[in-house]
From TrEMBL:
Organism: Dipteronia dyeriana
Name of the featured protein: Flavin-containing monooxygenase
Catalytic activity: indole-3-pyruvate + NADPH + O2 + H(+) = (indol-3-yl)acetate + CO2 + NADP(+) + H2O
Record keywords: Auxin biosynthesis, FAD, Flavoprotein, Monooxygenase, NADP, Oxidoreductase
Classification lineage: Eukaryota, Viridiplantae, Streptophyta, Embryophyta, Tracheophyta
Listed GO biological process terms: auxin biosynthetic process
Xref: Gene3D superfamilies: FAD/NAD(P)-binding domain
EC number in record: 1.-.-.-
Enzyme class: oxidoreductase
SUPFAM superfamilies: FAD/NAD(P)-binding domain
Pathway(s) the chain acts in: Plant hormone metabolism; auxin biosynthesis
The keyword Transmembrane belongs to this UniProt entry's keyword annotation: no
Length: 448
């Protein structure tokens, strides 16, 4: 069954339709400029922006309900964050049962924490199974709701200059992720530093830094893991810790800390689970403050719940800090040619700096809407679990600060909602050709 028959009955099986004849119709909506308007593509089903795990999960859940979607992706592959912007030693931070996408589990032979390659292989197999074929090299520059025609207009640019396309759709699913753009902080004297400065999105392996003194800025999961990787490649890392941080063992009492926390939360209040986690962490890791890693006042789960700040799950970094292989430093005051001056006045030489300073959403750059998404942080304004749906057919997947588990929950809700909309519209406006084009083919033809 195919739910994406082309508007005005011209499209057979393709979910999209390039309308070469519509230019004159579109002209009065298009900005008056000297260059001709971009080709306009009507999409009968939803347009999903982003072919990461969230976009793929949504496309699969829609497919299961016989709704074809068009997935637009700025890079040339699926899961570009995982394939292009992560370090080689990365594996899933959480056990696989908390990271699988809807409708298809991980292969049973995969380890508890699949490697980056295994995770990417799984996503490739997922896209194949649900026949998801994203349109690559399509960067969405702007999406705006046109209330006169009640369609979203999604403007994309391709690889070549001037290669612009406009997609028009009834539903727009934002799946560009919480990690769309690297956060690169301003550091005084950055331009004076002679060594290599790079964000973790460009860090692959400690191999490139063998024998070098490297300053890693940021003590989240990535910063901690990059330090460990540098140690394992005989580099000499120092870790800048400006903030308080919860470091927990990845496993406790023979179970994953994440799984155990989820289980305990079923029976106990969050504050009590936090106390338990901190007690076991103290028994297993000792007092982290002794090594320069002060804990926040709020417990790890409460903090995650209130601010979205994820605790660090230790995979061996703490042992290297204890042994002195990784030094802990305070905030940087300024950089000099080959050195960093810290806020405590200490000056130390470094060959390179890795910025493990995180990522941010890019939604405010391209989505011309400010009700659903905050312009400040590019995340949905309504807190979890209500941030997935906006007005006028706008949806968000993967912005819950709850990783792949949150993305899967969003994807299922979005697909059900769009299906319900399709059916309701078809029922209430049975005569319009457009509505008929949204129905599964069998239903559509029976109403003819
Ligand atoms: C190092 C690291 C490890 C992680 N480990 C885990 C883990 O173990 N478990 C877990 O649950 N989560 C983990 N996460 C969280 C992570 O965010 C998710 O795993 C997952 O990648 C989120 O999927 P997503 O599809 O929402 O976003 P992304 O994977 O970031 O995908 C978004 C896609 O949108 C595309 N895009 C962005 N802007 C545009 C645009 N304007 N036009 C077109 N396309 C665009 C991007 O190119 C990208 O392909 C980790 C994150 C990082 C950085």
């Amino acid at each position: 069954m195919d739910c994406s028959r082309e508007i005005e009955g011209k499209q057979a099986h393709d979910p999209i339709f390039i309308n070469n004849n519509n230019k004159s119709k579109m002209n009065h909506h298009h900005n008056k400029s000297s260059s001709p308007p971009p080709p306009c593509i009507y999409v009968a089903g939803p347009v999903i922006v982003g072919a990461g795990p969230s976009g793929l999960a949504t496309a699969a859940c829609l497919k299961e309900r016989d709704i074809e979607s068009v997935v637009l992706e700025r890079s040339n592959c699926i899961a570009s964050l995982w394939q292009l912007k992560t370090y080689n030693r990365l594996s899933l931070h959480l056990p696989k049962q908390f990271c699988e996408l809807p409708l298809m589990g991980f292969p049973s032979e995969f380890p508890t924490y699949p490697s980056k390659k295994q995770f990417v292989d799984y996503l490739e197999a997922y896209a194949d199974k649900f026949e998801i074929k994203p349109r690559f090299d399509q960067t969405v520059l702007q999406a705006v709701y046109d209330s006169t025609i009640r369609f979203w207009r999604v403007k994309c640019v391709g690889m070549k200059e001037g290669e612009e396309t406009e997609y028009m759709c009834r539903w727009l699913v934002v799946a560009t992720g919480e990690n769309a753009e690297a956060v690169v902080p301003e550091i005084e004297g950055k331009e004076d530093f002679f060594g290599d400065i790079r964000h973790t999105s460009l860090y692959k392996s400690g191999e490139d830094f063998r024998g070098k003194k490297v300053l890693v800025v940021g003590c989240g999961n990535s910063g901690m893991e990059v330090c460990l990787d540098l140690c394992n490649h005989n580099a000499m890392p120092s870790l800048v810790v400006r903030d308080t941080v919860h470091v927990l063992p990845r496993e406790m009492l023979g179970k994953s800390t994440f799984g155990l926390s989820m289980w305990l939360l079923k029976w106990l209040p969050m504050q009590l689970v936090d106390r338990f986690l901190l007690l076991v962490s103290w028994l297993m890791l000792g007092d982290t403050a002794r090594f320069g890693l002060d804990r926040p006042h709020l417990g790890p789960l409460q903090l995650k719940n209130l601010s979205g700040k994820t605790p660090v799950l230790d995979v061996g970094t703490l042992a290297k800090i204890k042994s002195g292989d990784i030094k802990v430093c305070p905030g940087i005051k300024r950089l000099k040619r080959y050195a960093a001056e810290f806020i405590d006045g200490r000056l130390e030489n470094f060959d390179a700096i890795i910025l493990a300073t995180g990522y941010k959403s890019n939604v405010p750059i391209w989505l011309k809407e400010s009700e659903m998404f905050s312009e400040k942080d590019g995340l949905p304004r309504r807190p979890f679990p209500n941030g997935w749906k906006g007005e006028s057919g706008l949806y968000a997947v993967g912005f819950t600060k709850r990783g792949l588990l949150g993305a899967s929950m969003d994807a299922k809700k979005i697909a059900s909602d769009i299906k319900r909309c399709c059916e309701a519209e078809a029922k209430h406006h049975p005569m319009t050709t457009f509505t008929r084009s949204l129905l599964p083919a069998t239903q559509s033809s029976s109403s003819n």
